[in-house]
């Protein structure tokens, strides 16, 4: 099965308030994102995508190239501001000054959730490994614990991406603590 | 009505509550921090450095009140009201009708000074009494249940002794409380200030102190909020990070791991 189809198959019937870890291999990264974008085609859900691996613009361009509809997706871009380069002008992109401002990620997630009342929010954190480049495990643990539980309390779903090739014992322990289940994608 | 009350009942359903009626600020995170809102009729000092969001938070307090049918009065010393509105965050829940209908009233304090012919350089004890009385009258005339004074620091510039400031605050707090108004009194701090207010007396007299600040962490500047005291309710004293958005002020806990 294609990785994007596998994502849809695994995540289509997620329970409200659930938290799922997606452990993926690097070579299926954009296929997985494609599958995630397709999760909100029903129009009843919104995808909030926290982009700390690549800029939102790069994801938008990649999705447009393969003809994936991304208009129901709101991006929280944690990397573009830090690079001080050109930024996306899409109204679906919010910028965070730095991936070290983890509180601001939580605040923007809440802002986007409030802006779409009545919609089920699916929040994707991409990825635990790239956020760890800028933050220690202690604060990462606090961040994910508060974020996931806040979203649980509101019936929203959290998907946390981790990259298999960059995985560590600390990441596994943390993801085990905040996730209900772990879905592994890739590796043939 | 935006009232909540901590209710405790015995086995027969009789109220054991000793809690106070609460005035919901409408800012969800802050109401949670305050254990259900500001105790009704409290006078609260909203204090902090420039750019920390004091004016925005106090405006939002009035807007949520207006949405709940409670009139609000904003007394500004620092900015003309048109400029204040022009610079206000374009909240999703604000409409000009709130002003037209009288739910929100903005008054430039300098107009009060001129009306009473106060010497703005140095107010006498009599002037202070007149000013408090005038604010009370305005509260009554506008049927305000929520009031903001922006800022007490600017008013205090015209008072030459701490005694006058103490008397004014005591009298103001008593008057507003007696009129059933829940008030936010804004206090401006500078980086050099070491207490919660410019003159040191404001924080002692107020029923509550909400401290807003800028926290620099590894080069990032975060807006923070902390409730230092609030008579009449049990509340969190933790520090929170806030964001001023068009959907209103949002709060999340400050991550402690950031200090390591």
- Percent range of helical residues of chain A: 40-55%
Q: What is the CATH class designation of chain A?
A: Alpha Beta
Which strand order spans the largest sheet of chain B, edge to edge or round the barrel?
A: 6-5-7-8-4-9-10-11-12
Helix-strand pattern of chain A, N to C? HEHEHEHEHEHHEHE
Q: Under CATH, the topology of chain B is which?
A: Rossmann fold
Head-to-tail CA distance between termini of chain B: 45 Å
Which chains make the largest contact? Answer: A-B, 23 and 20 residues
Instruction: Sum up the overall morphology of chain B in one term.
Output: globular
Share of residues in helices of chain B: 25-40%
The tally of strands of chain B reads: 12
Average pLDDT confidence of chain A is: 93
In percent terms, what proportion of residues of chain B is strand?
Answer: 25-35%
Look at the helices and sheets of chain A and give the structural class: alpha/beta
Assign the CATH superfamily of chain B. Answer: P-loop containing nucleotide triphosphate hydrolases
Rounded average pLDDT of chain B: 90
């Amino acid at each position: 099965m294609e990785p994007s189809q596998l994502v849809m198959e695994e995540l289509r019937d997620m329970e409200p308030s659930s938290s799922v870890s997606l452990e993926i291999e690097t070579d299926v990264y954009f296929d997985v994102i494609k599958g995630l974008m397709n999760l909100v085609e029903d129009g009843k859900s919104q995808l909030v995508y926290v982009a700390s691996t690549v800029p939102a613009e790069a994801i938008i361009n990649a999705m447009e190239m393969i003809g994936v509809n991304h208009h129901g997706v709101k991006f929280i871009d944690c990397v573009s501001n830090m690079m001080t380069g050109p930024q996306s002008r899409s109204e679906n992109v919010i910028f965070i000054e730095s991936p070290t401002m983890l509180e601001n990620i939580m605040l923007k997630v809440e802002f986007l959730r409030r802006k779409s009342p009545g919609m089920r929010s699916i929040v994707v954190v991409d990825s635990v490994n790239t956020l760890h480049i800028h933050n220690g495990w202690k604060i990462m643990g606090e961040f994910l614990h508060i974020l996931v539980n806040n979203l649980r309390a509101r019936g929203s779903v959290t998907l946390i991406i981790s990259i298999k090739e960059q995985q560590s014992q600390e990441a596994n322990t943390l993801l085990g603590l905040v996730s209900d289940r772990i879905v592994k994608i890739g590796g043939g | 009505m935006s009232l909540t009350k901590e209710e405790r009942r015995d086995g027969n359903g009789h109220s054991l509550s000793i809690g106070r009626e609460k005035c919901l600020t409408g800012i969800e995170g802050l109401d949670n921090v305050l254990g259900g809102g500001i105790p009704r009729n409290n006078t609260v000092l909203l204090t902090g450095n420039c750019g920390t969001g004091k004016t925005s938070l106090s405006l939002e307090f009035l807007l949520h009140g207006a949405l709940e049918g409670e009139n609000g009065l904003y007394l500004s010393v620092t900015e003309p009201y048109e400029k204040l509105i022009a610079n206000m965050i374009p909240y999703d829940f604000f409409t000009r009708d709130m002003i037209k209908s009288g739910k929100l009233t903005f008054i430039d304090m300098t107009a009060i000074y001129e009306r009473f012919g106060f010497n703005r350089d140095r107010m006498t004890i009599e002037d202070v009494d007149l000013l408090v009385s005038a604010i009370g009258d305005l509260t009554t005339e506008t049927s305000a249940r929520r009031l903001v004074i922006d800022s007490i620091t600017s008013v205090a510039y015209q008072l030459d002794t701490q005694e006058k400031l103490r008397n004014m605050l005591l009298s103001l707090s008593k008057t507003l409380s007696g009129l059933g108004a829940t008030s936010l009194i804004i206090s401006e701090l500078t980086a050099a200030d070491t207490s919660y207010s410019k003159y040191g007396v404001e924080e002692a007299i107020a029923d509550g102190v909400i401290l807003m600040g800028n926290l620099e962490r590894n080069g990032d500047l975060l807006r923070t909020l902390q409730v230092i005291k609030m008579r009449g309710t049990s509340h969190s004293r933790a520090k929170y990070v806030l964001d001023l958005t068009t959907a209103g002020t949002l709060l999340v806990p400050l991550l402690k791991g950031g200090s390591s």
